Amino acid sequence: MIDLSLESLSAAYRTGALTPLAVVDFIIAQRRKFSAHNIWIAELPDDDLRDRARELATLSPDSLPLFGVPFAIKDNIDFAALPTTAGCPAFSFQPAASAPVVQALIDAGAIALGKTNLDQFATGLVGTRSPYGACRNSFDAEYISGGSSSGSAVAVALGLASFSLGTDTAGSGRVPAAFNNLVGYKPTLGSLSMRGVVPACRSLDAMSIFALTAEDAAAVARVAVKFDAADAWSRRAGKPARGGWGTAPAFRFAVPQPAQLEFFGNEAYAQLFAASIERLTILGGEAIEVDIEPLLETARLLYEGPWVAERTLATESLLTTRPDAMLEVTRRIISGGATPLAIDGFRASYRLKELTRRAEPMWANADVLLLPTAGTHYKIAAEQADPIRLNSTLGRYTNFVNLMDLAAVAVPAGFTAAKLPFGVSLIAPAWNDADLLALAGRLHRAAVSTLGATSFALAPAPAKAPAASAWVDVMVCGAHLTGLPLNWQLVDRGAWKIASTRTAPVYRFYALPGGPPFRPGLIQVADGGVAVDCEVWRMPVENFGSFVNGIPAPLGIGKVKLEDGSMVSGFICEPYGIEGAADISHLGGWHRYLAAKGG
Question: Looking at residue 466, what is its pLDDT?
């Protein structure tokens, strides 16, 4: 077996104990071993995986932040190498490109393994609603894996991937984490691009991350989180009203009033949740009982209200032309979205606003809310005998989160006497993601000692958790571009390219005198500006100072406006520096200039 947690894998690569090819060969063998779990819908062919591993073998393990890290992709997220089915063969299509988040991960060195099973059209929290077979729990194959991101969770839990991508509208990125002893990170809505994702409820969908540890989830997020101007639902990161509580020695956490806790007869889960409250208190938290009825009523709105109409809209063509292509239970749920009237939509929206306002005092008095991720865990046979009612019980503590614009992390929190996992969720208002992940790491280590369904030990907490701002994005437009003489100054500092783009059309571009190396100068102007080709590189913040210190006058680092309107640190030129320089604005980029001059 190979420990695929990021810290362990990275160390093995650096020492030479492992190579990407060895890891790929291991995973190829392991995924055959677990074929009966119905994890995959489509696997990248073995030869393609080995080709990717050999490609990475030409690079230094320190050159990319996710070097050689294998990951799985839920099959409602586009990966250009394989079809997207959303769990419905009749819906299958071949995407022209990978989703931006998938591409960012690949560019950062990760190895995409294939597409994972899911509840059809991401409609369910159980993992059984798939024509590709019910995905089986990683601890006990008689139990549900949780859904809808079922295969994504089980792949990580069984040691077939270091992390995976899921989606989460009602808990699909958290319930499977709880049932498979994983961290399930449901980011703030809009922080990860949703382009290239088959929608369930477009206004509520989030891409999620399954990982073996909270630190691994944070490392993936540092690569994946980026504003996407081409995604109408993408949001620029905001700052929480109160930050730092995730690592503080004292914090306040809300828990439900005892009468509002429901475990559906699962006494083991009730005891494990009580133990989680005690652990969080030992970690420095002060428990505050709160009324969660506004949250519970909001949770009921998701499927009992008009938001189901978004699911109908997302599948309208198939539902109209080939309804038999859907599973019966999926069709029954989704077709219900055709019933609500416009007036019902407004009525529900007004009620949601009222409930959100009623919940505000909770966030004024507590930093974070602690809840069970799910109230109980069902066997597959029991769930299939009563699929809609039992699925509904699993959303009691998850359905409200996206409706109320909250962030959440599902955290392993112990095992029952039957050796089945239990999990809790840490929930906070939008943009508290860094604190949630930091606290999740602490709580995780206080509750369990192993990774997923493997026997590998959960490593001690890092000496210092990376800060949320541990990276700086730098725009380059000249000699630091890919393939040019100074690009090594980025690579040697652990930076990697996250975008090839253009500036906003507000600049003039000059070939400066001197060299080699030859350099351009970018000057912002009020009129007559052009857009200039550029790249954005992400660099560890601790290496940024030495990079800036080596930049010669008249160049420097300032804020540059990109074509999507965002501002990023990047190369600019002092006005005096263009004396004697050639204006090359009409060429629109340094590569084009070099090609035009034959060099």
Answer: 45
Q: How confident is the model at residue 200 (pLDDT cuts 50, 70, 90)?
A: very high
**Residue pointed to by tokens 């988040």:** 101
Task: Using the structure block, give the residue that is written with the tokens 């059209």.
Answer: 121
Alpha carbon distances (Å) from 345 to 145, 199, 404: 33, 19, 16
Beta strands in 77-234 (DSSP E): 111-116, 163-168, 183-186, 206-211
Confidence bin at 470 (pLDDT 50/70/90): low
Nearest Cα neighbor of 577 from 548, 552, 540 is 552
User: Left, alpha or beta for 423 (phi > 0: left; psi -120 to 50: alpha)?
Assistant: beta
- With 0-12 / 13-18 / 19 or more C-beta atoms within 10 angstroms meaning exposed / middle / buried, residue 298 is buried
Mean pLDDT of 528-536: 96
DSSP E strands in 276-418: the ranges are 285-290, 368-372, 406-415
Q: Each residue of 205-236: pLDDT tens digit?
A: 999 999 999 999 999 999 999 999 999 999 99
The residues annotated as belonging to the active site are 74, 148, 172
Task: List, in order, residues 6 or more apart from 210 with CB less than 8 Å away.
Answer: 149, 152, 153, 156, 163, 164, 165, 166, 173, 176, 177, 182, 183, 184, 185, 217
Predicted pLDDT at 599: 59
